Amino acid sequence: xxxxxxxxxxxxxxxxxxxxxxxxxxxxxxxxxxxxxxxxxxxxxxxxxxxxxxxxxxxxxxxxxxxxxxxxxxxxxxxxxxxxxxxxxxxxxxxxxxxxxxxxxxxxxxxxxxxxxxxxxxxxxxxxxxxxxxxxxxxxxxxxxxxxxxxxxxxxxxxxxxxxxxxxxxxxxxxxxxxxxxxxxxxxxxxxxxxxxxxxxxxxxxxxxxxxxxxxxxxxxxxxxxxxxxxxxxxxxxxxxxxxxxxxxxxxxxxxxxxxxxxxxxxxxxxxxxxxxxxxxxxxxxxxxxxxxxxxxxxxxxxxxxxxxxxxxxxxxxxxxxxxxxxxxxxxxxxxxxxxxxxxxxxxxxxxxxxxxxxxxxxxxxxxxxxxxxxxxxxxxxxxxxx
Length: 387
Description:
The chain is α/β, with parallel strands linked by helices and 387 residues long. The chain is built from 18 helices and 14 strands. The protein has two domains: 5-130, Rossmann fold; 140-385, Arc Repressor Mutant, subunit A (Orthogonal Bundle). The chain has a six-stranded mixed sheet with strand order 9-10-11-12-14-13. A five-stranded parallel sheet has the order 2-3-4-1-5, sandwiched between helices. A three-stranded antiparallel sheet has the order 6-8-7. Strand 11 (327-332), helix 17 (342-351) and strand 12 (355-360) form a beta-alpha-beta unit. Helix 12 (210-217) packs across helix 13 (221-233). The protein is globular and about 65 Å long. The relative contact order is 0.09.
């Protein structure tokens, strides 16, 4: 068992807010975390994918009235969308009786569905927290290469061998394609969506080219947009938006697209070992995506991520606007001899970055010229974690 960074965030949120919605893809560890919290305070747990637990909530107010004073944990809450209006009434009733915090912990694996349902019913009563897969500072920097290859889903990362890990990820992909996505309503052939997901993995970290994807799949650009929206809503793909402030330059306006978990990238491409990964053309994009997800997860709550690119060639792999408007400019290199191009320095000047950083694949800090130091990923995470 690893101590998850998200655990303390959720506990603090429950101590300050009536309800907390914990979002994340399936198998990321939400239920395990929730049950650990349940051991620390009076709680009840219902899994709304189980018919028996849904039956308990046939008359939700009757049941929930009996649970006043307990933390009610509802897993896969998007399975009962009509429940949200009852939760609003329950929260307001408990507030009137003096119980203002720590009432409900709602777990869900479909962000847009959940946010739409709860935004109207629970406005002002809920905090949203996204739980990422296992992070580098949770497993230790000595496991960096394992985490990069296998990804951060706990069962994949902790598998007995690379082969077992790959088998788990293949089963995970198949379950999403054949069961989870159809349960949300979209009628998309599993083979088509698998091809689309694989195409995104091949282009890991590239600019979104909807017309090329549409041509490759034999569908319309609008359909490609719908497929992408679905995977983004399921928190399996990230659409990294370009820096949008006016800097007096012609900016690239297409988003970059990443499969968020590096282990899923490698499973989609059939890369089951470190050797096969290092010999594949996706190695640079995979490392960049792995670092970007790690750094975004380590950044303070409220941080906005972007990338920056001009048509003239100035470029930054990641721009983080931290709370308080500090701007971090980050370049990512899969190399042990790091250096940056002139375009990096131009971009830093364009966005008026407060801090610049080069993250590379080495294990110690080294100078990279012009008042810039190259740092290992673990050190970059440590700097973002500092208050």
